[in-house]
Amino acid sequence: MEANRYSFTAMRGIQAGKAFFVLLCPLKLVPKLFRFDDESVPPELRAQRVLNRARVPQIARYIADNPQEYILSSLCASVDGEVEFEPVQEQGAMRNVGVLHIGMSCTILINDGQHRRAAIEEAIKERPEIGDESISVVLLADGGLTRSQQMFADLNVHATRPTKSIRLLYDHRDEFAQLTRDTVQKVPLFREFTDLESTSLSNRAMKLFTFSSLHQANGLLFDRPRNGTPQPDNLATAIAFWEEVIRNMPDWQAVQSRKANSSDLRRDYVHAHGIALQAIGSAGAQLLDEHPKDWKKKLSGLKQIDWSRSNIELWEGRALHAGKISKSALTVGLVANIVRQALGLKLNQDALELERRISSSRGMHFDMRRAS
Q1: Band of the pLDDT at 73, cuts 50, 70, 90?
Q2: 75-103, pLDDT tens digit by residue?
Q3: Sign of the C-alpha dihedral, residues 161, 38, 7, 129?
């Protein structure tokens, strides 16, 4: 920092005929140097979306909890004043490497990364020592509000958020994700027919399950609390449980032996969708708790369920809405009730309340004795 200006090691480049700079900024300077538009300003007068305050603590916690291995992608910002680039050499290979001087009177507006900026500010309060570490910044010359808004649109219009499946697959801090990775590898049907990248399967997909659905099913099976960690015996239990489930799902076995196609099952049966996997996991938690000795025998009840989507009386309003699979948490609970009853389990008060709701929506009388 020099008198009346900031100085950064930087590289200069050209995009669309205009100069831009990539610089390294100490984290402790980020809150002071970069600002975002006041959320009270109308959208048409802002250059970015309103800050989602709920996201900031999550990112800040990630930084503070992982001081030895956190990673932050570059901020992208625009500056509204004069900047001076001082190259190491006027000619040659180093002509685009040097020092960028930014006047303190300039306004530097974040076009992409406002949540990271706010999270950095919070994380430094808890871990001041990271303030001397750096984040890279892509800095562009500001052409006014219209230009800044266009920058935001251009930076985000083609951005694709990774699917939940692949986020979980690559997250080695999530111990339940590791449990699911190991389950996939140890259970042959899962290993061969689980899509590790997609969150939903197309009609023609050859896979039968998604990694994210199995992950959710494992979470329900072990009644995973938010941010909870698996117990040492959970993996062995998961493998044994799902292998026994598969033994009692003839249609799944037919896919594994190439006697049926995943796409045909998805078209004709409820059990070929993630909600069934999660419902079995949910009912399985109760089964393991109430029948620790004979739970494998109880799973034979899965064969008694008519999973056909043509069974409108059973599945419409429960797993189907207007003939289409519903993927809500409510749907998972309602399907889990069918699984519980097939396994000879009693419905608890929460499950009974779901049955009352579906009976009411169908205009039917709810019989608690029949449901339990």
Answers
A1: very high
A2: 988 887 778 999 999 888 899 999 999 88
A3: negative
pLDDT-derived band at 45, boundaries 50, 70, 90:
very low
Q: Would you state the structure tokens that stand for residue 284, as one six-digit string?
A: 């399985």
- Structure-token pair, residue 126: 């808890």
Task: List, in order, residues 6 or more apart from 120 with CB less than 8 Å away.
Answer: 27, 30, 31, 60, 63, 72, 135
Task: Give the angle 203-209-212 at the CA atoms, nearest 5°.
Answer: 115
Residue 92 tokens read as 């040659």
Amino acid, res. 51:
L
64, 126 Cβ separation under 8 angstroms: yes
* Rounded average pLDDT over 17-38: 84
Round to whole Å and give the CA distance between 13 and 35.
24
Instruction: Say if residue 155 is exposed, middle or buried (CB neighbours under 10 Å; 0-12, 13-18, 19+).
Output: middle
- Tell me how far apart the alpha carbons of residues 114 and 51 are, in angstroms, rounded to a whole number: 7
Reading the block at residue 345, the tokens are 């389990």
For 313, counting Cβ atoms within 10 Å of its Cβ (0-12 exposed, 13-18 middle, 19+ buried), the class is exposed
Alpha helices in 89-226 (DSSP H): 114-126, 145-157, 164-170, 175-186, 188-193, 211-221
Paired strand residues for 134: 26
Alpha-carbon distance of 210 to 216, in angstroms, equals: 10
CA-angle at 197, arms to 192 and 200, nearest 5°: 90
How many alpha carbons lie under 13 Å from residue 61 in its C-beta half-sphere? 6
Task: Return the structure tokens found at 275.
Answer: 């909600």
